[in-house]
Amino acid sequence: MTPFRALIFDWDGTLIDSAAHIIRSVQAAAADAGLDIPAAEKVRHVIGLSLERAFMNVVPAADHGAYGRFVEAYRHHFFRAALQAQPLFPGVPEVLYELQERGFLLAVATGKGRNGLRRGLEETGLGKFFDATRCAEDTASKPDPLMLREILDELVVGPGEALMIGDTSYDLEMAARIGMPRLGVTYGAHAREHLEPHAPLGLLEDIRRLPQWLSALRQAG
Question: What is the pLDDT of residues 151-185, one digit of tens each?
Fold first, then answer.
């Protein structure tokens, strides 16, 4: 039997293919705010952080006023395109349905803002699958593990009974800090070499392999 009662998913880059849209939105917002436009790879590396922390990393010399202009512009560009620019990865609804049917508690831990996640859950129809969600503006930004602690408390699950599933080093580091098992996916924002140092139980190239991977883990145990 798998030791996990709960599966906690990152959102961007794990369930939804949003990296390109985020990169375009950040670059357009920087231009609107009169800032240097960051390179795509630099933006890709901060996907998963709160918007404030991401901004501080990609435009470290900007003042607070510039941050306010950037946030307003970013939200304009990000929400304008909506679902068409950020589709679900293939198989996500089917995987979540199967996992729910198998009795897992499901949750989301994301660096997105609450409005962005709420809209994403509504537009994709995935909201019905999740028992708990946390966003960066609700709590501390990744890789601080506070959002995981809050999810665990809400679900009444211990760190060893949950699995964090994410595409960035921030997801895996966050889980490692509280001794939570973690699984990386290699199709999102961060490359395999950024995930491996955080000792994931495995690395998946396709979310559709998750149910099989969990079954194999159960059989091995």
Answer: 999 999 999 999 999 999 999 999 999 999 999 99
Tell me 144's DSSP state. Answer: S
Report the catalytic residues: 10, 12
DSSP 185: E
Q: Are 2 and 214 in contact (CB under 8 A)?
A: yes
Q: Which residues pair with 49 in a beta bridge?
A: 47
pTM for the complete prediction?
0.90
Q: How far apart are CA 200 and CA 192, in angstroms?
A: 11
Instruction: In whole angstroms, give the CA distance from residue 49 to residue 43.
Output: 11
Q: Look up residue 205 and give its two tokens.
A: 């190239």
What number of residues does the chain have?
A: 221
Q: Which residue in 8, 83, 12, 81 sits closest to 43, CA to CA?
A: 12
Do 58 and 46 meet the contact criterion of CB atoms below 8 Å apart?
Answer: yes
R_g (Cα) of the chain, nearest Å:
17
In 34-90, which ranges are continuous DSSP H helix? 40-46, 51-58, 64-81
Domains and CATH numbers, the chain: 6-17+87-220 (3.40.50.1000), 19-84 (1.10.150)
> Which pLDDT score, from 0 to 100, does residue 67 have?
80
